[in-house]
Structure formats: structure tokens, C-alpha cells
Amino acid sequence: MTAIDVADSRQVERARVQAARKGTLGRVALYVMAFGAAFLAAGPFLWGIITMFKADPDLYTKANNPFIFNQAPTLKHVDFLFTGTPFTTFLWNTVWVGLLVVAITLVVSLPAAYSLARLDMPWAGPLGIAIFFVYLVPPTLLFISLSRVVVELGLQDSTWSLVLVYPTITIPVSVWLLIGFLSSIPRDIEEQAMVDGYSRVGAFVRTVIPLAFPGIVAVVVFAFTLTAHEFIYALTFVSPSAHKTISIGVPTELIRGDVFFWQSLQAAGVIVAISIAFVFNLFLGRFVSGFTQGAVKG
Amino acid sequence: MAGLSLKRAAVTAGRRSLGDREGLLAPLFLLPAVIYIFALVAVPFVLAIGFSFSDVTAGDPSFDWVGLDNYRAIFDDPVFWRSLRNTFVLTGVSMVLVVVLAKALALILVADFRGKWLVRLLVLLPWTTPISLAAVAWLWMLDSIFSPIDWVLRSLGLIESNTFWLGKPDLAMASVIAVQTWRIVPLAAVIIMAGLISLPKEVDDAARVDGAGFWRKLWEITIPLMLPVIAVAALFGAILTFTDMTVVYVLTRGGPNNATQVLSSWAYFKGIEGGSLAQGAAVALFLFPLLLAAAIAILRLVRRMRVS
Description:
Chain A has helices at 2-52, 56-59, 76-83, 87-117, 124-136, 139-152, 160-165, 167-183, 187-195, 200-211, 213-229, 232-237, 246-253, 262-297, and strands at residues 255-256, 259-260.
């Protein structure tokens, strides 16, 4: 018994020494690969950051080294983005559409997820699968018939059409995530609340929702990001620039025929990209655990 | 369970409200979600099928049955076949690239190193940025005159004149594939990373103690165990790739000369810009069999993962 333990620990020790010897080289390779990957992923945005501060003659001289400032950097084009284009309107539209859609999504998804995760129903399994399938149905399959639905409802060319339609994208994925978060809360807690005299609904509202709060915040961020990403519905339903969101406003209004406001375009992309990525990163761990738990429970 | 409900019944005896009748509560809680999805996903889907057998246009929305006319019309159009082929090429090629790159990226992301938060932030940018804005950034990267890639290649003496990334059919297609791959890799890497983290550590330790080297461990343990997760990541990526029209719309508008047209963008140009809702719907419906096959495959893989 002891002999085997000693042999084992010796082998482990030898492995450790080997690993340490390989270590330095491995570390260098790791750093090169990690920062190389970061450079490839962020490349277009790094180029965007350089571009957004460039003066016109500097940017539009083919022989200039594009990676340095041949002339003094300028804030002119960033300023133009905020004062000379409807960019702030797009931002505001994206925010209020996103917030309303998130609110609708939570009101609809929380009870649905609770029902599928907790209230034992014979058809919870197939329904969970059905929701998963709906999650995979892409806007490109439905946008043409939905464009008629939107016209019939009198919502064409209005941002409200997006408030109506976007929950079809966010609800399935939110239910899926919330099933994961709700399942990870011990049943005992709400059963105790019910023993204490709360009804099932009361226990859900007063114990489950507060406990699931971190998960709910993650769902809010994820759903909001999905609405900010959406392109084809917005492109199909909305054409007046006062009603456009970021994702369609920037590529359609800052490119006018042959005139590209390149510095302002890049500034818009960089500002939006970095802010979303920053918030998203704070919640990445929770998205991952939500998806895997949802899959386990499914 | 029986004991518990007995206890609960004792406590709430006499004042059983709606809030306690689970048999009723469960469907009631689900109802709003089901209604929403039914009204705005199921109904439009059936409507799309109906449109594809009709003569509905944006200008004249009255519904007249025309049988298979729309399908005959789109089959007679070489652009449709081009789009179908491009959709397969785009999805196939980018999936192979995504699997290889995402696996490598996942291995980087689970490792510990300084500045990891910065690397993670930058690496996820392609996924977290709205696709249309990311595509605009690429449009500038691949500009016909001011592309910085061309500038570097020119400075190194590798090219004489500019490449026109988006102006030549094959290069334009390659550009679209590259941008889609760039966009999907972070998502696939996160899925694979979740799988890597959930791998039982004991298996790895046991293999190491048994003297398995890095490669043997990779081939005989990690890859077989990870295969379902990698497949799920690939299929998710495939769905996001072949249903997306944004990259093509922003980069090339399907051009030059429809060389980069895919099914979803062709449906948009036919249905919305061309105004023929019926033909657009018919084109878009060809996405459905692909989608269904991918979805069923994902489901099977997830089930298998749960069993093992």
C-alpha cells in the first residue's frame, strides 16, 4: 500500500519536474498565442481606433503609413458623429427598445422557466425541447411574412414594431438560461417558505426571484445584447432615420451612396463594441454556467 | 413529495387559493410565453409557407393561390443555385476553420496568464459587437484603396497594386468566409471552454499517472470526451453562419455580380428590395431543412452528453 503511494508520488514528482522544464518555453508560447489571438480578434477595431482620430488629408493619402499619425490627430469626426449625425438618436432608440424588450422578456420568461424547472409537469421535457427549437429559428426565415404582419398592425416604419417582434428572439434563450439558474436554487428554500404560509406564487416571488437575481441580471444583459445586435428585422421594418437603431442606423445613414464618413463610422463601431464587450465580459461566467445548467436540466 | 404536500396541505388547509393549485399554475405560468411564440413565430412561419404558394407582393398584398409558380421561377434563376451553393461553401469552409481555431482559442482561454482579462475582452469583441458594426469595420479593413492589409503587402513588396478584396468573385467569397469565421470563433470557443472546464479532472490525472503523454492524452482522452461539445459548438456556429445575411449585405450586397449571394441575402433582395414577398419567402424556406437537420443533430449530441 505504502510502496504504491511512494511510487505514485515519485511519478507525480517526475511529471512536475518535466512540466517545469517545459514550462518556460510553454509560457512564452502561451503568451504569444494569447496576444496573437487578441490581435487577430480586435484587429479591425484597433484599425478603427487609429482611423477615428485621423484628419482627412492624412487618411486619404494612399502613400501615407496608415498606422501612424502623419498629421496631428483630431477629434473633429468623433464630434461630428455626436452632433452632425443622428447617432445619439440611434443610441437612444437602441436603449429604450432594449429596455422594453428586456422587461417584456422577463415578465414572460420568468414564470415560464419556473413552470418548466419546478412545477412537475408531464410535458415539461418536450416543451423545453420545443423552446430550444424556437431559439434556433432565425429571423431570416420569418422576416418576410412578419413584414406583412407589421404592416397589418400599422407598425411599419416605427420602432414599436421592434418592441413587438424582438421578444420572439429573447424569450426562448432567456427561458433556457433561467431554467438553469432556477434549477440551481435548492427546493428546500421555497418549500420552507410555503410551510411558513406563503402560497406557491408567493414563495416564487419572495424567495426564488431574489435568490435567482444574479442569474436574472445575466439574462438582462444577454437579452439586451441580442436586441442591440439584431439587423434584419430592423432593416426590413424601419426606414425613417429617426426610428432606426444602432445596428441599422450606422451602416445606412453614415454611408450615403458613395460618401463614407469613415472616421465617424469607425468611431461609432469602436464606441459601441467596447462598451458592450466590457459589460458582457463581467457576466461571461454566468452565461456559461446558465447554458450548461440549462442543458443538464433541459 | 407526498409527505411534503401533506405538510403543506395541513398548513394551508381551508385557504387553498389559485396560487397553490400547481396543476393549474404550471400551464398558466407557461401561457404568456406560448402565446407570444405562437403568434409571432408559429403563425409567421405558416404564413411564409402560404406566401410561397401565392402572388403576394409588397404593393399588392392580396392573396391568390399560384401553386408551384414561385418555386418554378426561383429554380429557373441561376442566382438561386449560386446562392444555394455559396451558402453550403460558406458554411462548410467556415465550420472547418471554426472548429480548429475555436479549439485552440478555448485551450488558451482556460490557461492562466497575466493580462487574461484584457485578452478575453479583445478576443470576445467579434462576438459581442453588433454584426453590422463589425462588418463595417471589416469593410474599411478591406477597402479597395486604403486597406491597411494592402498597404502592408505593398510595403513588403508582395503585391504591386491593390488586391480589391471585395471586387473579385473568389476573393470576395473568401473575405465573407473569413469575416464569418472571425465572428463565430469566439462563441464556439466559449462553448468548448465550458466543456473543457466540466471535464472530470480525475480522468486527466489518472491518464497522467499512467504515463500518457500530451499527444496520447489529447487523442485518446480529451478529444473523444470533447467530441460532442465540439460538434455542438460547430453546429451552433453553422446555424448562425448560414442564416446570417448581415455580413454579405454590408460587405458586398451579394456582389460582385451575385458571386457572394447566399440564400438569406437573396431572399432579402428578392422579397424586400424587389418587393416579391412570395418569391422571397420561397427562397428563405430553403433554410428550413438545413436548420432542422442541425437542430436535431445538436439535440442528439446534448442527450448523449447527458447520458455519459
